[in-house]
Design goal:
By secondary structure, the chain is of the alpha/beta class. It has a single domain (21-227), classed as Rossmann fold (3-Layer(aba) Sandwich), CATH 3.40.50. The protein is built from seven helices and nine strands; from the N terminus they run αααβββαβααββββαβ. It has helices spanning 2-6, 10-16, 27-34, 73-90, 123-129, 131-145, 202-216; strands at 46-49, 57-58, 66-67, 103-107, 154-160, 162-164, 174-179, 199-201, 222-227. A five-stranded mixed sheet has the order 1-4-5-9-7, with helices on both faces. A two-stranded antiparallel ribbon has the order 2-3. A two-stranded parallel ribbon has the order 6-8. Strand 2 (57-58) and strand 3 (66-67) form a beta hairpin. Bound molecules: NADP nicotinamide-adenine-dinucleotide phosphate. Residues 23-25, 50-52, 54, 73, 107, 109, 160, 162-163, 202 line the site of NADP nicotinamide-adenine-dinucleotide phosphate (NAP). The site of NADP nicotinamide-adenine-dinucleotide phosphate (NAP) has 14 residues, from strand 6.
Amino acid sequence: MLQEKHSVPASTISSNLTTVRGNIYDIESIKSTLISPNNPNHLVDTIVSGMGGKEPRFQLSLINPMTIEDPHICETSMASIFSAIDALAEKGVHTAVNGTKPLLVSVSTISLDQKRDLPYLYYILEFWLLRVMRDDKLKTELLIKADGGKHIRNFVLMRPSLLTDQPRGVDKLQVGWVWGIKKDEAGRPKEPGPKIGYAVARDDLGAWIYDHVIKEGGWEGKCVSLVY
Ligand SMILES: NC(=O)c1ccc[n+]([C@@H]2O[C@H](COP(=O)([O-])OP(=O)(O)OC[C@H]3O[C@@H](n4cnc5c(N)ncnc54)[C@H](OP(=O)(O)O)[C@@H]3O)[C@@H](O)[C@H]2O)c1
């Protein structure tokens, strides 16, 4: 994809990207992705997870008309990442090179907040048709928010609308956010609230995460909604 779609030279990819073949049910492969490629005594600085379900299918149920191969894939994968961090800590690998625990960026979904981020047309989709996947994302978010610094130093939860493959450019994105953990804290910026919209492209979501969460910083603790 990097070569064909973005014309990145093969030499740049091989010198900057480490890929690990594995599976979220295989703790050893998860541990490999969490060790810094630059220093095996440290964890990576940032974990970005876009885990999602496979093989969506309809089933005979009025309550949950649609399901996927593993209805708990996102929650299970997050618990496995935390277990892998525990296993590495037992071997003396506790922190990233900068001395902190990794920042976790997790791609979640819309419809999980008290503040409305869902177009009315999507209510049936999210709360009925996609309920199994929505519940999994909700439990994953709860797991992340309950971590309290045990495995990660903080989180950024991305809450994109329906994902497409028709990018319009990051400058076309509307960006809203809310705090992931609600609390009254003096000096804490007031959340502007989510943006409501129908879609966002995978490319623009990824580019925005890189430009703003990874390079710019300052999104820790926030749930970010991105729509056109
Ligand atoms: N599609 C939407 O409209 C939408 C809307 C809101 C949020 N989201 C979320 O956005 C993210 C990306 O969505 P997408 O539609 O682009 O989904 P996707 O292409 O199906 O991506 C899901 C990812 O999960 C990986 N995965 C699944 N099972 C795995 C396993 N057992 N072990 C390791 N990796 C596994 C897949 O890896 P492989 O490709 O190698 O199998 C793939 O990279 C997901 O978190 C999704 O829940 C999607």
